[in-house]
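User: quick one - fold this with iron/sulfur cluster bound?
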Amino acid sequence: MIRIAIASGKGGTGKTLIATNIFNTLIFNHRKATLVDCDAEAPNAAVFFSNKKTDTFDVHQMVPVIDTNKCTYCGKCHDYCVYNAIFLLPPMKVIKVIEDLCHGCGACSYACEYGAITEKTVSLGQVNNYLTNSGYKITEARMNIGVMSPVPVIKAAINHADKDEIIIMDSPPGTSCPFIQTASKADYIVLVTEPTPFGLSDLKQSVYTLQNMDKPFGVIINRAGLGNRDVYKWLEEENIDLIMELPFNVNIAKIYSEGKLITDELPDYKTEFFDLTNKINDVIKNK
Ligand code: SF4
Ligand code: SF4
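Assistant: Sure. Structure tokens for the protein plus iron/sulfur cluster:
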């Protein structure tokens, strides 16, 4: 099994376009593949395929509940909480759990010697499974509105996805915890960028993060022809693989905005995307 994450330093660069078309190309070529949509704040990869939802399950975490009748305001739970999720004012006899900061680690329950802490279940989001008309699986992480971190939902979706020959993961944008969670599970990361100053700035952050993680990666420039040549110059200077370019093209934008796939509508791209997956496969094998 190999896992390929499609990521970008910022939203709107076209990573879902790349992820869905790689997946579609694998379907054409009868490879055993699963698509995991890890962009839990706004998952939309499934809409590009005719599919039906097959099952869904809730992702939850345990959050402490403090019984103020039993609490002595000793502060031990507060000291154990590395996430500063317990607000405590002993002179005022005030203690509160800040649920948005709580990571459900259970340290406070362990710390309390007075039996003042019990736990309740809080829903963080869902993992949804879909089956495409051609029998391929899509697993989607979808966090609830208002939840602070999508990480537990992303982790559950990746763990739950079928262990197929190739797993394509549409990563959340940015370089913070949700991206790290996805990239850390990948054998190879495709970074999608655009040839603009913003694109270059965000690409640099993604590259430095992946270099620190010691992960193999390559870059796709989307909307090539737009902006300037600074991204190309930087990739050359840093000896980073440019693995594909997609032109700045009204046809591609129109197809994508209609929820269609360029590998269906513009057949030349079938070959181009299949060559891309073979190239990535070779890098992973020779690692
Ligand atoms: S469960 Fe962990 S993160 Fe949550 S309040 Fe207790 S110690 Fe803090
Ligand atoms: S450890 Fe228990 S008794 Fe002490 S402040 Fe926390 S909840 Fe209250």
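One thing worth noting: The longest strand covers residues 51-66.
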